[in-house]
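Handout for the seminar on molecular recognition.
Each group receives one record of this type.
Step one: identify the two inputs.
Step two: read the structure output and locate the region that could contact zinc ion.
Step three: write two sentences on what you found, then compare them with the reference statements printed after the record.
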Amino acid sequence: MKSCPYCCSPGDFYFRIFSRIYNRCSGCDLIYKQTQDSYDKILTHYREDYFGRYSADQVEGSRNKLFDYVLDLIGERKKIGRLLDVGTGSGFFLVAAQKKGWEVKGIEPSKQSVEKAQRQYGLDVFKGTLREYNGNGQFDVITFINVLEHSAEPWKEIERARSLLKPEGLIFIRFPNGFLHTRIYRLALKCGLANRVHKFLVFHQFCFTPKFIRRFLSDCGFSGIIILNSPPSEGDPAKLFYSYIFAQYIKRSFHLMAKAIEVISGRKILVGTSLEVIAIKR
Ligand SMILES: [Zn+2]
């Protein structure tokens, strides 16, 4: 069994989906692909293919309300200042942040996305990755919205992000709930329903569970770690449901249920489809 790429503890087989095998670390609870894609392979995909295949959900504005929610959540904890968004796509989050008064900068590897962000919105976006970014400006806030789980080595990204944060700077990360998605899939495998449910589930390079994220950010020099269920995007950008209205109803109902469990359990049980974490640089 391949050991955990983060903490090197032994990892046990957890599940297989198509040709991909995922292991789960017995130490830190990271769920990871047994055969991991290289940094260069992942980067090539985001540089060349991502915009054409996946930018529709950005263009259709399905995350606009989510972005306002994220900015309000951050605004409750930080005074308006400098904000860096990693994997910013075409810059819709930056546009929303700018409207609220933030001085914004983005980092994005896709050439088409960067061109759109620069030409259409006049945004300051660096074409490349966080590792390639040499600017030494200091930021009050750094955001990773559905980005970090795609990375080859998230710990390097967070280490670099930390170095770019001002003292007591805030990090915000949104990611699919690895705890929920992997358990539903394993249950579906046992019940013979895997083919029906897999399209609703998300497995990237890594599946982050609350347990892993808490330990990971603490190891990386962050404190005040708060993990919450994150609201869903609007409508049905991935075309998984029969209609927009039906998708809205299902997603909102599930989120309300997850929020109720979160409150009742004192934030200990998090079963939403997406999670978000905020933490402060120590
Ligand atoms: Zn581990």
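Reference statements: The chain has a mean pLDDT of 92. The two ends are 35 Å apart (CA to CA).
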